[in-house]
């Protein structure tokens, strides 16, 4: 399947989703970052979509969990096992010649020790060598921003666990900010709102579905009410209610404000020449959170800057990680310098 020299991989190890990009092929694997384990033996029962379908539905001896949360590794042995599983999947049956180089984009809150563990797991899974890449840098490459040129580009990557804001010029990050407020917080706010207002308990997947369908920053025009099912906390029985987009928009507003404030704070720290470049080109949103209805408009109004959503925002980091393979020598040198 892979030709010689075209088997190197880029991996976006995200808190919500893991994507693998194969050089010369594009994205070859896209699965949720979820693992199902046997509670007593810790043996892995399922990974990715299969494991995700088990969330909230497992018997007592199995747990389905997200080994990364809030942009950090909550369970690092499981993260390493998941990573190995995905790499093996990606390189399975494609053994032409030597082992692949792998570029890995890890959550920004990861510690140096955890990063080393992830890179070691990558090597153990069959990589010739593995190099880390910073998430906003990968997002900017994936969004086709001119990161290597002497001009300012601003990227805001809104993932599941973290929002990364960065201004990039000449192949480096000039100013950046990372906050642990992103897609998961939208879901949590929806759960909390529905519990408080309706005494109804809903699961993570329902909350995410509500966000995707009728979640919005501000304006809700064109978003119809939605029927949702949960468990009535008073009777203990299943119940269906209808909720409006206005209510959900209200529930999401604090999280939206936190993200917009992070962008404003980063702009305040941006050198004026680069800020002028960003004014011309616009702020580019990547990550799944970029798809929240109206977030681009609210951000543009609040920052008084043009704001654009990248093509395929969910894929930008993986594509950028893969494209960075073309500049692998730079990353090899960086790795040498930090050893
Ligand atoms: N249409 C949509 N509207 C709003 N949010 C969405 C939409 N589609 C996906 N999301 C959200 O995007 C988030 C996942 O985005 P992404 O895959 O970029 O994150 P990640 O890279 O796994 O996380 P991180 O960058 O924090 O490690 C989830 O919270 C998901 O619910």
UniProtKB/TrEMBL annotation:
Compartments it resides in: Cytoplasm
Superkingdom as given in the UniProt entry: Bacteria
UniProt key word Cytoplasm: yes
Residues given in the record as ATP binding sites: 15-17, 160-162, 208-211, 288-291
SUPFAM superfamilies linked: Actin-like ATPase domain
Matches recorded under InterPro entries: ATPase_NBD, MreB, MreB_MamK-like
Keyword Chaperone part of the UniProt annotation: no
Protein keywords: ATP-binding, Cell shape, Cytoplasm, Nucleotide-binding
Protein task: Forms membrane-associated dynamic filaments that are essential for cell shape determination. Acts by regulating cell wall synthesis and cell elongation, and thus cell shape. A feedback loop between cell geometry and MreB localization may maintain elongated cell shape by targeting cell wall growth to regions of negative cell wall curvature.
Quaternary structure, from the entry: Forms polymers.
Family matches, as NCBIfam families: mreB, PRK13927.1
UniProt xrefs under HAMAP family: MreB (MF_02207)
Assigned protein family: Belongs to the FtsA/MreB family.
Protein name: Cell shape-determining protein MreB
Organism: Lederbergia ruris
Gene name as annotated: mreB
